[in-house]
Amino acid sequence: MRIMITGIPSYLMRTVDSVSGAAVKHRPYFENVRTKKDVIDQVKKIANTGNYLIGEGAANSVRGHDVTYVPFWHLANSLNSPETYERLNESFDLCLFASANLLRPGYAAMTESYVFERLNMPIVVMGIGIQKKENLKNELPEGTHRFLNVLKKKEAFFLTRGHFTAEFLKAEGMKYVRPTGCPSLYYAPDAMKRSLSRLADPELAESQKIAFGGYLGSVPDTIVDAHALLHKDSTASYVIQDEVIVYNMNMVGDETTEVYDQAASRITAPTEYKHAEKWQRKRDYLVFFDTHKWRSWVSGQDFCFGRRFHGSIIGMQSGIPALMIAVDDRMREMLDFVGFPHIEASVWNREPQKKAYLQDFLSKIDVPAAIHRYSACEANFNAALKDIGIR
User: Where do the Polysaccharide pyruvyl transferase domain residues begin and end (predicted)?
Assistant: First the structure.
């Protein structure tokens, strides 16, 4: 089958040089990332580096087909070009749209509605989810309602991140809706199970090589976590995903200042952000524009711990035990669906003896049940792909 993937991309989008009609030209190299402007520009292209895992997982799910990634910006820029859409409709049998928390008050999917209106092929919306549950229908922008109405009239398949999104879409009249979880969950299933098998170990709370993820620049929660778990002479390794564009994490210097070591994927410039003065540990800031480099680095850590879903999933894809702190509805939906052990932020944040609490929590994890639940989710995902005819 000839499949066009669009929407959230894998890191290979960084090699796209140009697009004409249905043909995509790639460079045989990645752009260098060294300066402050380079880092910010690369993060802006993906909005959040964790999104690369979504696009990668979606592409991996159809790897047995004739697959082309067509950047969504090309589809949007070609809305007034009937010739381009004629070529696209001739060249592909199915469109796979990789998405995330598209159903949210702050985002209007009007452009998506116009794009899909012009595509004459089945459309699979993979990984769609919500940002918050409360009053969702009434707060959705008109553009998103139009997006749903366009797809309601087409041969469209919705694979959602969880049950709440599935029930919402069914109530909106969508014909094929199946909760499957984020596609990143199934990129490396054997490693995911290996990660789960290593999680019920209280000694992980004593780890000093921890991959932290959170929202530095917004709240100091990760600083508190690092102080609770790391020795005074240890270094906190923090993975940046979108902080430099969303949470005012500033790399000191002008646009041309060299701030990034590509070989180490490490920020080398001093950083400034809200609450940074609270740190009492040395720290490294890392940012990855290549998921393989990210997995390679995280495979050298002992534990992943934090408030970022994909910052933990990348560790699990490497077989490293990971425990997430659930901070919002989108994260809870994904965690509740797949059944991964996790801690509620409201509980963890007020716990005075964090290390002891973590040790006790880890000791009580039912590993066989977690692996069984994950295996059932993997089988469900593959069954959905088979239903659609792409597995």
Answer: 48-328
